[in-house]
């Protein structure tokens, strides 16, 4: 959504694409589909009361949950908070959600909603002259960021908004036809009619464009083609308006452009008007944002645009298709040169050769073209100084190759495509750079459908698009295979390409002059030896992303060397920055890198790289976990820590952030290490990662890494590793109330224990199993025995844990006074040893105990302290528990609205942590909502 700079510090909303909330230019995260669906329902009816039943219908089109109303209340509370947090200080209007029977109302200035802005421009356009009408509707169309409500599948209003977009596109084209731009509109209209083959309005516009381009016979043939298809597939004849238009074309009676309109598209200067653009790429789909960016060129600051991206990402197709649409803006012609910067077995084309071609295209006789390059540059720039010409330079190797080809006049535009970023053009020539990414999934599916014409591609299109990494070249190859019959059916092709080892080979078609592997091969062979070596190392790594310290460790290189080399791989678009500290590869580039590593490196070298990266993650994870809580095991990676360069992990926030950023990589490294027999490294890394998941619990994720570590320890015959993995698994089971599964683990730990601390952990776990089975007498005896064991060992971490456990059993036995004293002792010890996560839980436990003995002031005070600590330290589950305790205390004090807010947040926190506490918090919330409803009835 666009806004002037003076309005940048304001809230804006979008439904013309994925549902969007912008704080100025900054997107505000809206979480899952529930909150996005709620916001969409309110935005589609701004300043109106939207009944809660209607919202529920929008959110749950199929199975309706029993707690739908409660969930909606939670979404409303969450959205209110986001709006409050997002409103800039100087925004006096903002947006508010009001509770108004029978639902909710979003009070907002409609001009902050993209749909309202688009409709406003459309309304103004209706009474405007053709040129202004085309401009207004074009600006309105530019507000679309993709299909409306794209992140809310099957939304009931989406078809209506898609129809609005299509109708506006037709109105804009009709206005441009009035201006005599038929020739420039034919390509766009052919794409439109392919997408909507039975839409008569679009076909009528195509007939007019062909007719006004002097292609009357083509217009008549186009009508006959449409009529035959309509009869064959729909059993109907064209409607009266289209038939009448056809008859007027037959009689040659359509109005032609006026003399003034013809003058607008006639070259102003020169005898020769070059028109060198290649044909548009068939089936072109999507790229709305990129087309908008190109349409915004040139600017006051620059008359050069660079589209850069990985091989096969569709740079040429994008620029050529846009150039056809923009040709009318450059009435003195279009120049095109393929520079062959990355063509296999061919040297890049020299600027002097291209200058000769361009001068001839501009009407300079061959005998008048200078031999000297500088003289050619001077003549070329003189000819273009007063002209408005579009210059497209495709497949450029480096900035110096094309610098002599840049016109210096203010009315011309040069667009360059390259696999490298051409930072030299950006820095020296003020070029504007657009890094082109693969297609969004819906556009990738459209491209497959446009090209293959296979009826069932939509059934598996999303999977095919994903396997193609959403790269247009790969999608075109797949479409060619589908269309030719190779691979038989789309589903069979999915099966073939799902095998990673065969995917690159499958993304090739006999007779085509390109394949994914061949395209990437050219980029790889252009790397210098240092970059090539780094690319080979990347091919050995199992992770999704990589940081500079991890890559340095994997390659066995100094961090300074790797830091200096990484920009070179970015420049060649073989890797891309991900966030502030990581780099990533597209999937197909990753597969190609893996093939390169297999060919270029010996098996022992590849194993060494994997061992190196495992060592890095062991050192970093051990360092990070010690910021989260003191270890309960004797494991350490001190030697590795001293030998490696690690990221800054000196605070709890940095440790939590590191685990979050590296979690997918940890999964991948654990799996790869287990497969290659790195048993000891794998179980130790799983143990370190367990500390993070114990704080930010996600059950399936947590269990998966522990299962990998346990299997690796057992495969290596390592009793210490098996024991600590079973301890970790027991903590997980205890957290998710699976007591019956704990006892066998505890018994196995005690059976194989190799040291006192492991035996202590096993004894504590055994008592935890009894506690889960409500065998409270046995449990408190077991915990007290573990407490004595911890004190004998001088292990304060274990001592605090056992005090906490004893207090919980005392509470269950009704010994609440004793439980408060024991719990306070646990809390003080956690604080002393700096166990920040468990300090939160101990404080919340203490608050809960105070609430149960009726000391509500103390309960609220301790719950708020626990909540503050949990939020500050990122302990998601601790925050959910603290909010639940606080909500119950506020409920008991009669502060129902405040209790509702805390309990809604508690339920949300438990759900995000995938923890069982959500049931008790939801029950407390239901009670509060009932009491609020009863109070409202009485008032």
Automatic annotation (TrEMBL):
Residues 3-108 bind DNA. The keyword Signal does not apply. Keywords: DNA-binding, Transcription, Transcription regulation. GO terms for biological process: phosphorelay signal transduction system; regulation of DNA-templated transcription. SMART domains: BTAD, TPR, Trans_reg_C. The keyword Nuclease does not apply. InterPro entries: AfsR-DnrI-RedD_regulator, BTAD, OmpR/PhoB-type_DNA-bd, P-loop_NTPase, Sig_transdc_resp-reg_C-effctor, TPR-like_helical_dom_sf, TPR_rpt, WH-like_DNA-bd_sf. Pfam families: BTAD, TPR_12, Trans_reg_C. Signal peptide: none annotated. Residues 3-108 form the OmpR/PhoB-type domain. GO terms for molecular function: DNA binding. Belongs to the AfsR/DnrI/RedD regulatory family. This is DNA-binding SARP family transcriptional activator. It comes from Tamaricihabitans halophyticus. The lineage of its organism: Bacteria, Bacillati, Actinomycetota, Actinomycetes, Pseudonocardiales.
């Amino acid at each position: 959504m666009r806004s002037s700079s003076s309005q940048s510090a304001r809230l804006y909303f979008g439904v013309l694409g994925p549902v969007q909330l912008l704080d100025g230019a900054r997107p505000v995260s809206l979480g899952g589909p529930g909150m996005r669906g709620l916001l969409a329902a309110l935005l589609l009816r701004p300043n109106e009361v939207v009944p809660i039943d209607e919202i529920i219908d929008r959110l749950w089109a199929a199975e309706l949950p029993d707690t739908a109303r409660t969930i909606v209340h939670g979404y409303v509370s969450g959205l209110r908070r986001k709006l409050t947090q997002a409103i800039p200080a100087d925004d006096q209007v903002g947006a508010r959600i009001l509770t108004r029977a029978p639902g909710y109302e979003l009070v907002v200035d409609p001009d902050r909603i993209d749909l309202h802005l688009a409709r406003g421009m459309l309304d103004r356009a209706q009474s405007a002259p053709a040129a202004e009408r085309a401009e207004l509707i074009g600006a309105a169309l530019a507000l679309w960021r993709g299909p409306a409500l794209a992140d809310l599948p099957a939304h009931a209003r989406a078809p209506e908004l898609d129809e609005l977009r299509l109708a506006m596109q037709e109105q804009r084209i009709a206005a441009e036809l009035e201006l005599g731009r038929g020739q420039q509109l034919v390509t766009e209209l052919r794409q439109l009619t392919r997408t909507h083959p039975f839409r008569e309005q679009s076909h009528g516009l195509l007939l007019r464009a062909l007719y006004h381009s002097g292609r009357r016979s083509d217009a008549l043939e186009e009508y006959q083609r449409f009529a035959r298809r309509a009869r064959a597939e729909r059993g109907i004849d064209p409607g009266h308006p289209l038939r009448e238009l056809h008859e007027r074309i037959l009689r040659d009676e359509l109005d032609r452009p006026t003399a003034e309109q013809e003058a607008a598209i006639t070259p102003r200067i020169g005898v020769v008007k070059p028109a060198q653009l290649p044909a548009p790429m068939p089936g072109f789909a999507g790229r709305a944002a990129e087309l908008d960016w190109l349409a915004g060129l040139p600017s006051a600051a620059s008359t050069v645009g660079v589209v850069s991206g990985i091989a096969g990402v569709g740079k040429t197709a994008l620029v050529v298709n846009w150039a056809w649409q923009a040709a009318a803006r450059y009435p003195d012609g279009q120049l095109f040169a393929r520079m062959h910067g990355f063509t296999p077995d061919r040297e890049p084309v020299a600027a002097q050769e291209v200058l000769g071609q361009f001068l001839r295209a501009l009407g300079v006789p061959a005998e008048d073209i200078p031999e000297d390059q500088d003289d050619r540059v001077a003549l070329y720039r003189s000819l273009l100084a007063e002209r408005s010409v579009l210059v497209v330079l495709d497949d450029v190797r480096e900035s110096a190759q094309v610098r002599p080809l840049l016109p210096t006049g203010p009315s011309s535009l040069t667009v360059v495509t390259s696999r490298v970023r051409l930072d030299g053009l950006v820095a020296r020539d003020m070029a504007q750079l657009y890094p082109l990414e693969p297609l969004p999934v819906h556009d990738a599916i459209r491209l497959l459908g446009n090209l293959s014409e296979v009826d069932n591609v939509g059934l598996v299109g999303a999977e095919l698009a994903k396997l193609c990494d959403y790269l247009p070249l790969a999608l075109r190859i797949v479409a060619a295979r589908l269309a030719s019959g190779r691979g038989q059916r789309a589903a069979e092709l999915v099966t073939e390409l799902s095998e990673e080892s065969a995917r690159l080979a499958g993304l090739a078609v006999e007779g085509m002059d390109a394949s994914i592997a061949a395209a990437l091969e050219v980029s790889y062979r252009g790397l210098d030896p240092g970059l090539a070596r780094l690319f080979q190392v990347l091919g050995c790594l199992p992770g999704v992303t990589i940081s500079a310290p991890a890559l340095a460790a994997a390659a066995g290189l100094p961090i300074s060397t790797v830091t200096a080399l990484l920009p070179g791989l970015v420049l060649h678009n073989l890797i891309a920055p991900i966030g502030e500290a990581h780099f990533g590869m597209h999937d197909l580039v990753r597969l190609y890198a893996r093939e390169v590593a297999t060919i270029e490196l010996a098996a022992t070298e590849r194993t060494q790289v994997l061992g190196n990266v495992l060592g890095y993650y062991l050192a970093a994870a051990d360092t990070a976990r010690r910021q989260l809580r003191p270890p309960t095991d004797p494991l350490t990676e001190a030697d590795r820590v001293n030998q490696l360069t690690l990221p800054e992990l000196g605070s709890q926030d940095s440790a939590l952030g590191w685990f979050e950023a590296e979690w997918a990589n940890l999964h991948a490294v654990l799996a790869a290490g287990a497969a290659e027999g790195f048993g000891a490294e794998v179980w130790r890394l799983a143990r370190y990662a367990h500390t993070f998941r114990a704080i930010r619990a996600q059950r399936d994720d947590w269990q998966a890494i522990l299962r990998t570590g346990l299997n690796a320890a057992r495969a290596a015959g390592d009793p210490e590793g098996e024991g600590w993995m079973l301890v970790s698994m027991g903590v997980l089971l205890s957290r998710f109330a699976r007591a019956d599964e704990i006892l066998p683990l505890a018994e196995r730990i005690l059976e194989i224990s190799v040291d006192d601390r492991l035996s202590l952990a096993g004894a504590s776990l055994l008592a935890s199993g009894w506690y889960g089975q409500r065998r409270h007498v046995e449990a408190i005896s077991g915990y007290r025995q573990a407490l004595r064991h911890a004190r004998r060992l001088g292990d304060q971490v274990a001592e605090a844990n056992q005090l906490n456990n004893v207090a919980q059993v005392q509470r269950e036995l009704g010994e609440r006074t004793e439980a408060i004293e024991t719990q306070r002792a646990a809390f003080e010890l956690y604080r002393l040893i700096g166990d920040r996560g468990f300090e939160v839980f101990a404080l919340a436990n203490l608050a809960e105990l105070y609430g149960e003995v009726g000391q509500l002031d103390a309960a609220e005070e301790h719950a708020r302290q626990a909540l503050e600590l949990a939020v500050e330290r990122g302990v998601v589950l601790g925050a959910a528990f603290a909010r639940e305790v606080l909500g119950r205390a506020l409920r008991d004090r009669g502060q129902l609205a405040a209790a509702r807010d805390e309990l809604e947040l508690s339920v949300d926190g438990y759900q995000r942590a995938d923890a069982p506490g959500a049931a008790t918090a939801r029950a407390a919330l239901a009670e509060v909502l009932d009491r609020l409803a009863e109070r409202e009835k009485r008032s």
